[in-house]
Write a structure and sequence with these properties.
The structure is a single chain. This protein has helices spanning 11-23, 42-54, 70-76, 90-98, 114-126, 133-149, and strands spanning 2-6, 29-30, 61-66, 84-86, 104-108. It is built from six helices and five strands, in the order E-H-E-H-E-H-E-H-E-H-H. It has a single domain (2-149), classed as Sugar-phosphate isomerase, RpiB/LacA/LacB (Ribose 5-phosphate Isomerase B, Chain: A, 3-Layer(aba) Sandwich). The chain is globular and about 45 Å long.
Length: 151
């Protein structure tokens, strides 16, 4: 399942992305915010997606949209088994999947036009992690770091 969430700054972009996903017939679940609320709290909203992806079967992914993308990235990376990546370009999205096996895409609504966001999402969703030895070795290193720091 693909989960999508935004705070108030990302709400408009999220609604446009939902249209793109529907038109592309990509299954997703919107887990908030369900209306514009200038006083909502990103930690609560982003934690919803991070928690779902953290407990996943390795097939679940998430998209978190806030103003800069930084807050969503920081929050999501506090969860085990989450590799959230702030992607401002298509190439960064591709490499975040190939090299780091990212499972949450963070987008910056204040910096990313909806058409660019859609290109980033398409590339992120259609890219698999690399089978190259060096990236597999580095993913094992990331797993070890996670084990040591999430006790």
């Amino acid at each position: 399942m693909l989960y999508i969430v935004s705070d108030h700054r990302g709400y408009g972009l999220k609604e446009k992305i939902k249209e793109f996903l529907n038109n592309a017939k990509i299954d997703f679940k919107d887990v908030g915010a369900f209306k514009y609320d200038k006083d909502d709290d990103l930690p609560v909203l982003a934690s919803t997606v991070a928690s779902l992806v953290s407990k996943n079967n390795k097939k679940d992914k998430g998209i978190v949209i806030c103003g800069s993308g930084v807050g969503g990235s920081i929050i999501c990376n506090k969860f085990k088994k989450v590799r959230a990546a702030l992607c401002l370009t298509v190439n960064v999205a591709k490499e975040s999947r190939e090299h780091h096996d990212s499972n949450i895409l963070c987008l910056a609504a204040d910096l990313t036009d909806s058409s660019i966001a859609w290109m980033i999402i398409k590339k992120w969703l259609t890219t698999s992690k690399s089978t190259k030895t060096r990236y597999q070795r580095r993913l094992k290193m990331l797993d070890k770091i996670e084990k040591e720091n999430f006790k």
